[in-house]
Amino acid sequence: MRGTTVGAISETASVSDEGTETADVSRETDPPAAAGDDAVAESDKAADALANVTVRDDAVPETDEDTPLARAVAEDARKREALVGRELPRPAETRILTVANQKGGVGKTTTAVNIAAALAQGGATVLVIDLDPQGNASTALGIEHHSEVPSIYDVLVDGDPLSTVVQPCPDIEGLFCAPATIDLAGAEIELVSLVARETRLKKAITAYTQELAEQGSTLDYVFIDCPPSLGLLTVNAFVAAGEVFIPIQCEYYALEGLSQLLRNIELIRDHLNPALHVSTILLTMYDGRTRLSAQVADEVRSHFAEQTLKATVPRSVRISEAPSHGQTVMTYDPNSSGALSYLEAASEMAALGAEKSEDRS
Ligand SMILES: Nc1ncnc2c1ncn2[C@@H]1O[C@H](COP(=O)(O)OP(=O)(O)OP(=O)(O)O)[C@@H](O)[C@H]1O
Ligand SMILES: [Mg+2]
Question: Which CATH number is associated with domain 66-360?
Answer without folding.
Answer: 3.40.50.300
